[in-house]
Every structure is written in C-alpha cells, then in structure tokens.
C-alpha cells in the first residue's frame, strides 16, 4: 500500500460524526449508504486526481483479503490547504454483500484499481480515535455499523444482533454509566470467561477458590440459565452477576479490577457499539489479569488476529502463562516485559483429570472468525463444516459411535442449530471439560484444547491440511508447534489420519 496517499474522513453537520448511515432501496435491493467528506492529496500524480478513478473497498481483519464495495467521489472537489482537495463521497453496501463479509472489515480506497491507504474516521482526529460509531442498522438478526478504531481508522462491522444494539439497550447503558458516576468506583473484582457465559475454565476454578478463602468482593458474570449454577455452592451462587442485567452494567462501569480468561470486552457484551463502553474498556487506570482460556503457545502471537491480546499492556495489567517457554513467546512475539507475566500454569488444570475407562473420540477444530457470518447463513458451505466432515470420515465405521463433536464455543450455537448429518455427534448437554474426562483421543487442527487433552493423558491427532490458508487468515501467522515439538501425530490428509488413528 502506498504511503503517498493521504486520506482523511470527516463527518457532516447532521450527525457530528462520520456521516449519515441510512436505509434506502436501489434497484429493488436494500442497501447501506454512508455519506461524508474526504480530503485527498496524491503528490505522486501529475496534476489533480481523477475522481472517476477513486473507488472504495474493504480488507478483512485477518487475511487482508481485498474486496470491492460500491463507493465513489462526487464532483471535482474543492481546493484545500497543502494540496488537499475536499470531495463528498458515497459508500453503498447491499445486505447480501454485508452478510458474507468478515465480522470486522477495514475500509480503504482504490485509485485506478490499486488499493491505497486506509481511510480515517474523522478529519479533526489525527492520531487517536474517540471510539465513535454510526447508527446501528439491524436486519434479519444482524447488526451493521461503521466504527472508529483506536488509531482513528474507518472499519465496517457486521455481526449478530445483541441487546444493546436497540435504543432501549443504549439508554440502559447510559443510565448505568450515570449512576456509576454518582456512586463512584467500587472495590469489586469482576471475573468472567468467554462471552461472560461459560463456567469451566481458569476463571471458574479461581473464582471458587477465592470464594472458599473468604473473598466477599469477588463477582462472577454468567448467563442466568447456565446449568453450572445448579452445581455451585450457595456461597458461590450468592456472588454471581447475571449477564445483561442492569446490575451487570452498573458493576462493569464501577469496577476497576477485571480477571478473565478472555480480553476485557468479553466482560460486557462482545463488540458492543457504544462509546461509553469502549472508553471504559480502554481506561488506562484499570487493572486486568488475563488468565488465558487455553495455552496460547500454538498460533504465533505476532499474528494480526491476535492484536487484541497484544494490547493487554496497561501498567497494572498482568498475564498468567503456563510455562517459561510460553513466557518467552509473549516476550519475543508479543513484546511484553518479563514483569508483566505470572508463570504459574493455568488454574483450570487444577481440576483436570480423566476417567480410567475413557473411550470417546473428541473432535474439535478451532473457530474460524472469517467464516462466522457465512456459517449463520449456510453452515454446510463453510470450511469449518468441511473440516469436521474430514475428521469424522477419518474414523473407522466401527468407532464412529464413540465420536463427540464439540464445536468451538464461538461456533457452537450456529453449528448445533444447523440440520446436518453431524448433528448426531453433538452433545450440547455436556461441557468441554466433561467430555475431556471421557476422551481417549482428540482430533483437532490448531485448538489449544490439545494441551488439555494431552495433559489428561489422551492421544492427540493434528489435522493440518489447510494450515497455509488458516495462517493467512490469522494474518502473517505461523504455528509455534512443529513436527519436532508437537505432542501428537501431525497429518495432512485422510490416509495419514487413518494411520495415526490405528497407531
């Protein structure tokens, strides 16, 4: 991408932000339309740029795949300072195109067919963004909006709708924030796991230990209907906070100490489009202890897709790691300081064991965020589905009744709601931890659950036939496990998988 392109986006007077996002109908199809102003300067060109050669496009977050969307400049532009010209612009994205896009998409522009530098959200904010977003458009259970990143770049988000996408949800957030300002900060320690909905990883183990030791200021966020609640002691149950309640929002804004197995946005509602929430998550005065949801010594930390984990760098932030080798991974590829790391092992391993008569064959590939939206529409048309089918087919027929497919938690709902031949292998009544206790063999691709299974004594078979494609989607990533240090059989085709299974 050329560094010679200088592009800035500013908002119109009506919204005071990026521009007006509206619904409209074009050629019978509903379309998102974004309007705004941009200032362009192209010193490498002789003369003024030709507006007809400027179009807009998107790059997905992980693989940096390029895709065109309908967008153009209007008019010849108005001369401005330092050789810039101001142009009105229009970007159109039809719904069908949006549904097939990645969850997060960086907006750039082309000049004469060549992709150029990313577009900025606001002309007045040169370096640091203010966490703004346009109006949220809801359609067929999906939510779409343009947003501002930390570095003031323009991104397009398309994801399943959440409670806070509606005006009532936004008002609820505002009221909780206002009351938190009146009440002030609390000494509460908020704990959580993936999407604040699970209770089977390091967060749950540590929470129960802290409650048993008498910590009264510890709270755990969880879905109200989670079956794990019925198995808790009364003391633990009394210190729960139910997800998406007003108390959840209030404690989120009042809390200054977070302990979780995921990045801090999981303590709220993932990808909430709200400026107050985003400012809270980026508050430099917070303390955050990252427990990890699994050993991260698998996909390299310098991958684009892992940028969120590399941002865990406030002065008071700390990360729990499982070994000295993993600590060096964080230091070398994540650019962390040794004093930022606690080399203790993961708390969830304290409760890890396997039954002597374990005989299940657990299948679990890691999730593929770049396929998440496509899976909602047509699960059988995804690489994730084809990977599951290849793994199932590698198991001899006489052992297929022992297969249990445990989709990655972020893919689980869409997988289990699909009507496929794989449904008979799902066990929605069992957690990953419960299945692992009965597992004799794990078949996976790049999931850190491999460490859990191996630690318990199970055999592991890795399926790496699409490794290059997946690492590209992670963004310049590579596997830390290799043929020399992997704790299982590495396979690249069905024949190798069958041989590994027999062995």
Structure description:
The chain has 503 residues and is α/β, with parallel strands linked by helices. It is 24% helix and 26% strand. The strands form three sheets. Strands 1, 2, 3, 4, 5, 6, 7, 8, 9, 10, 11 and 12 form a twelve-stranded antiparallel beta sheet that branches. It has a seven-stranded parallel beta sheet with strand order 15-14-13-16-17-18-19, sandwiched between helices. Strands 21-20-22-23-24 form a five-stranded parallel beta sheet, with helices on both faces. It is globular, with a radius of gyration of 24 Å. The model is unreliable at 1-19 and 23-28 (pLDDT under 50).
Biggest sheet architecture: 12 strands, antiparallel
Q: How far is the N terminus from the C terminus?
A: 49 Å
Helix content: 10-25%
Count helical runs: 15
Report the radius of gyration as a whole number of Å: 24 Å
Instruction: List low-pLDDT spans.
Output: 1-19, 23-28
**Overall strand count:** 24
Query: Looking at the structure, what is the overall shape?
Result: globular
Beta-strand content estimate: 25-35%
Report mean pLDDT, rounded to a whole number: 84
What structural class do the secondary elements suggest? alpha/beta
